[in-house]
Amino acid sequence: xxxxxxxxxxxxxxxxxxxxxxxxxxxxxxxxxxxxxxxxxxxxxxxxxxxxxxxxxxxxxxxxxxxxxxxxxxxxxxxxxxxxxxxxxxxxxxxxxxxxxxxxxxxxxxxxxxxxxxxxxxxxxxxxxxxxxxxxxxxxxxxxxxxxxxxxxxxxxxxxxxxxxxxxxxxxxxxxxxxxxxxxxxxxxxxxxxxxxxxxxxxxxxxxxxxxxxxxxxxxxxxxxxxxxxx
Length: 231
Known about the structure:
8 helices; alpha/beta; tRNA-binding; four-stranded antiparallel beta sheet; globular; three-stranded parallel beta sheet
């Protein structure tokens, strides 16, 4: 067990032992128990009753959070010249193709999301070993491989996030910042949870949502009652 600081210990006292909270109380507590000096991220961790080793139980999707994530998302648009002006006008931070493919091959990954058009995916495929482990590979399912480059860039900038269950059956996502109002965090959490519920695989048996926790960066975890999440 890592040694905890005084602020963490005091924050932990605000969480009642063996109690599971509704979304309203949980989001209020997440703000109160944020112990970092910076504007901490507020995260949701959901343990699902799925086995991601089976393709038909893989849970992956996207959701547009009503209030965004509070994070400035750096977007790279890998597109041919005909689409580059469109990407720039939509707010992409970096726009190009061969020049950026070369930079990435050399190890540059100072971005959060890559948007690409289908016609360039043949070139981008060779970057799989670099982009794949970092979760940066564009994917049609997440809306980041599309001819509608402007809409894709705007959606990402506005708070659209991509999520995917890990090998342990856990979904992890940032839903805001400690500077957000509790209602903003609650509404973002509700949007995320509703999307996860809609993605329940038909082959998943038993309890789908097994546990939900909310926490701030460096802050204690707060359990959310499953009754607050329609499971």
